[in-house]
Amino acid sequence: DAKTTQPNSMESNEEEPVHLPCNHSTISGTDYIHWYRQLPSQGPEYVIHGLTSNVNNRMASLAIAEDRKSSTLILHRATLRDAAVYYCILRPMEYGNKLVFGAGTILRVKS
Amino acid sequence: NAGVTQTPKFQVLKTGQSMTLQCAQDMNHEYMSWYRQDPGMGLRLIHYSVGAGITDQGEVPNGYNVSRSTTEDFPLRLLSAAPSQTSVYFCASGRSESGKNIQYFGAGTRLSVL
Predict the structure, then answer these.
(1) Partner-chain contact A43 B107, CB within 8 Å
(2) CA within 20 to 30 Å of B56's CA: A4, A19, A67, A83, which one?
(3) What whole-number distance in Å separates Cα of residue A84 and Cα of residue A107?
(4) A102–B100 CB contact, under 8 Å
């Protein structure tokens, strides 16, 4: 399985944008890039995913490098509720049933 | 919308006891799975199912059994609980096993084995 590398932790101020990086240099051409987050004492929740093009939804934006070896999750205006562990996960197009979770990035948001 | 429902939310067992963690989803999803999360760590896949009657092992299957008799339910059985199984257990479901599909998680069951 292709591996992802994320910083252990990041800190942001409330109401400011946050850029969470993820490196995945061994990604294959059919791997989807997924982001999930886990709020304290809760189950993981889906944030966003993409294959090749940048993606936007109501929660965040996903910027994918042209060579697909890295991606960045962008929270446009961080709130205290966004404090969580963020996981960057690669999922094969076929048989992508196994979400392989790494340690993720702990995001702390300061008021 | 109920989504993925796990019961119980908390459970304390003695070593050697057996129990079943329940998971139900109301989204008609084919794919369901069980993960465990130990303190300070990411989730690890225990077992998964790609449809009723079909199950397979994940990364850490030892000590756990599953079955999938209906689309909606995917119970996880601990046959003889051990302290090493103290963890938080999450159930997830998704439309299919394709990597393009989203997975939805339950709130978790916090299990302590004494």
Answers:
(1) yes
(2) A4
(3) 5
(4) no
Task: Give me the mean pLDDT over the A14-35 stretch.
Answer: 94
Chain pair A-B, CB pairs under 8 angstroms: 69
**Proportion of chain B above pLDDT 70, given as a percent:** 99
Tokens representing A91? 């999922």
Residues of B in contact with A42 (CB under 8 A): 107-108
Written as six digits, the tokens of A49 are: 């995913």
> Tokens standing for B73?
């339910």
Contact B99/A92, CB-based, under 8 Å?
A: yes
* 3 state DSSP class of B17: coil
d(CA A87, CA A56): 17
Q: From the list A44, A97, A101, which residue is nearest B48 (CB)? A: A97
